[in-house]
Design brief:
Oligomer: single chain
Radius of gyration: 22 Å
Shape: elongated
Distance between the termini: 46 Å
Order of helices and strands: HEEHHHHEE
Low-confidence stretches: none
Length: 140
């Protein structure tokens, strides 16, 4: 078990890394950004088709902002800063598009089912949908 101790505590540091607040911010950003891979994989496997869930965009945004902070305030490396300086733009844009799409859903006044945007008839009961009957806030 000595080899495990040497592997984890190299040169007196956990994993051989000189830890500090900014190192934790950087590693946390990396972990959050990487976790989006599992979120997207799980959602795709669950639906049996390629999907990109909203959580993917939130994790992308949080991870990239943490990594940008690490790059700008600790690393101070222009290449690293530029790599994350603009990544937040498509993430926010996709979150805005998702929110608009979510708000555009229609409620069926007959059965209460929420129908996709642009639907003329309820998918559940076949009733004609009134365009002004927007769906209430949906979870997720």
């Amino acid at each position: 078990m000595e080899w495990l101790k040497d592997l984890l505590w190299f040169n007196g540091n956990f994993l051989g890394i000189q830890w500090g607040v900014w190192k934790i911010v950087g590693w946390l950003g990396n972990a959050i950004f990487f976790s989006r891979f599992f979120v997207q994989w799980y959602a795709t496997e669950r639906k049996k088709q390629v999907v990109v869930p909203v959580a993917f965009w939130w994790l992308s945004l949080a991870g990239s902002l943490l990594l940008l902070s690490y790059a700008a305030f600790y690393q101070k490396d222009s290449v690293f800063i530029f790599a994350y300086a603009f990544t937040w733009i498509p993430y926010i844009r996709n979150l805005v598009i998702q929110q608009r799409h979510k708000k555009a859903h229609l409620n069926c006044t007959d059965c209460g089912v929420t129908c996709p945007p642009g639907s003329s008839f309820c998918l559940a009961c076949g009733a004609r949908l009134v365009p002004g009957e927007k769906a209430e806030s949906q979870p997720g």
